[in-house]
Amino acid sequence: MVDLLIETGLSRNIAKTLVFLSKRDETTSVEIEKATGLRQPEVSIAMQELRRRKWVDKRDTKKEGKGRPVHSYRLNAPWSDVLTQIDREEQSKIDRIEANRKKLKSFA
Question: What is the pTM of this model?
């Protein structure tokens, strides 16, 4: 699944993170790092993009004592909806390519 998502144009880090999230109700950035082999900055950048696309929600949980809160993440839509959106984006690319081919043929 990761390779297929990469073929659609998603980065390797985003694809790995997204597939991991699809298998969890909620998870932390540390769990994502361990499961995917990504470093903290890579997970952070991937999560920014996934949140920008509105596929992921972030929740901060205060740890006992001092320190930074723990970031918890979860998909905010069913996995099938995320895949449907990716499919629509792929179809849009195909439509643009076909339109460009028609224009090119009109000049031949």
Answer: 0.89
Q: Rounded to an integer, what distance in angstroms lies between the CA atom of residue 4 and that of residue 57?
A: 24
Mean pLDDT in consecutive groups of 10 residues from the start of the chain, 108 residues: 98 98 96 98 97 96 81 96 98 98 94
Q: What are phi and psi of 64, to 5 degrees?
A: -65, 140
Whether domain 2-77 has CATH 1.10.10.10: the reply is yes
Let me know: does 16 contact 35? Beta carbons within 8 Å: no
CB atoms within 10 A of CB 22: 15
Structural tokens at position 53: 């696309």
Please, what sign has the CA dihedral across residues 77, 81, 87, 89? negative
